[in-house]
Amino acid sequence: MEYILEQPVITSIGTEKYKCTVEWRNGKFISDEPAFNGGKDAGPDPYTLLLSSLGACTITTLRMYIDRKGWDIPQIAIAINMFFKQEGEKRITVIDRDINFLSPVTDEQRERLVQIAKVCPVSKIMEGGIQVRTFAYTGTDTENTHAYTNGNVTVEWRPELCKHAARCATQLPQVFNPAAKPWINVDGAPGKEIVEQVAKCPTGALRMGKKK
User: Fold this and answer.
1) Partners of 84 in beta bridges
2) Which of 28, 29, 36, 176 has the greatest CB tally within 10 Å of its CB?
């Protein structure tokens, strides 16, 4: 298993309703709830972020395709909204995506671009099978910490927080092998690669320790 993002998206919230800080690989922004939900509308709400993701992916995919074809379509706009409907006991989410070509296109181009929009990566995620796995942990230290060192590099492992060992085994198998004892071999790769992999641990189960 390998994650799409090298670094996870981090969201955090304090006591201010309902200001949420979203951190991504190159910065951070605020998400909030509208006033009618008790927030201050200081940033996009979760529904807006979801629809923005689909809109941005769609329009970027169209631009890539148009550029490859060399078509003269300088600007595109997309309006997206959603609603819910009930079918028996099942709640269905319906997303309407309206693509507006702000310059003339042929019928053939329009038909082809609609098909391209339907297969943009986020569209395929939304229309495919989705599993949301949830792991909970605290940021406090735990007494059960194992250290692996070669004198130059020390990796500390807290098993109670470990939820993603398979990812380490996939991305740096010469160091992380759950089938081996010990499962962390700090001599298996250069120190820089180990530090970079440990930094990707989303739960804090792995961290770099002091040299021993």
Assistant:
1) 93
2) 176
> What pTM was computed for the model?
0.70
pLDDT in tens, 69-115: 999 999 999 999 999 999 999 999 999 999 999 889 999 999 999 99
Which residues pair with residue 82 across a beta bridge? 95
**Degrees to nearest 5, angle at CA 148 with 147 and 149:** 120
Burial 10-30 (b: 16+ CB within 10 A, else e): eeeeeeeebbbebeeeeeeee
Beta partners for residue 208, in sequence order: 155
> How far apart, in whole angstroms, are the C-alpha atoms of residue 206 and residue 149?
13
Instruction: Supply angle C-alpha 186, 191, 197, rounded to 5.
Output: 80
